[in-house]
Known about the structure:
Elements: H1 3-27, E1 37-42, H2 44-55, H3 62-72, E2 77-83, E3 90-92, E4 99-101, E5 106-112, E6 115-119, E7 124-126, E8 132-134, E9 139-140, E10 162-164, E11 169-172, E12 175-179, E13 183-185, E14 192-194, E15 198-200, H4 204-207, E16 208-210, E17 217-219, E18 221-223, H5 229-266
Antiparallel strand pairs: 1-2, 3-18, 4-17, 5-6, 5-9, 5-13, 6-15, 7-8, 10-11, 11-12, 13-16, 14-15
Amino acid sequence: MQNGYYQVTGAMMTQFQQLDITANNLANVNTQGFKRDSLIIGDFERLYQQKRDELELKNHTKESAKFFNRTINRVPRVVEEHTDFSEGSIRRTDNTLDIALMQRDLFFAVLTPDGIKLTQQSSFKLDPDGKLVSSDGYKVLPKNFLTTTNKDITINSKDGKISINENGEIFQNNHKIADIFIGRVKNLNELKKSGDKLYTLDGIEDKLTKVDSGNLVRQGYIQMSNVNAINEMTSLIETNRLVEMYQKVMTSHMDDLNKDAITKLASTRA
């Protein structure tokens, strides 16, 4: 079996992963607060450059040539999955409990069965007990949830009109009744996606900073996903073309080259 066949097979598997990511982005083009994902694919030249610098291998040496020959036989692979946290468009809804975050590194905190998670989804509601919850039913945590056992925001809708200022403070009849937790993540790369709307952060107490004031939220608005449908469709077409190209190369290796080799080996001419 030719080495090139394995390389093409690996490259095709990488493109299958790219198809999955692109398809998921397109499926969530209208999901509130969704952030698009992308793959960083390692190429031979970059991998070689990084490793050579790490090992201090000089060009045009036997050691460098041996390393390069070993590296060139490795297939393209996914180096990293990246989430783009750029802001999506802001859409006006005039719903009282729709609260759009106004900065890319700000998050709400919600309590799930698997623990505390972060979200940029901004469409909330009241459950039957008057607790403020996300659209998935998770409790939205108050500003002091890290230092108190009270992890509920309770609102009686019959007590009057609800208003929420830019700092996440909730008022009824001009009296403040609660504060929504709004936190800033120091390093967005440390966030791990949990589904399409939630994020986990290891060591949340040290890596999440509570933000008290500023242009933090806007009531009556939601933040849409940052997925550009046209760009994703273009990526989908390009990836499909690459898969088709790899299929042709695999066919060439399996059929044409093997057939040619068998014909030459079977030849009885001197």
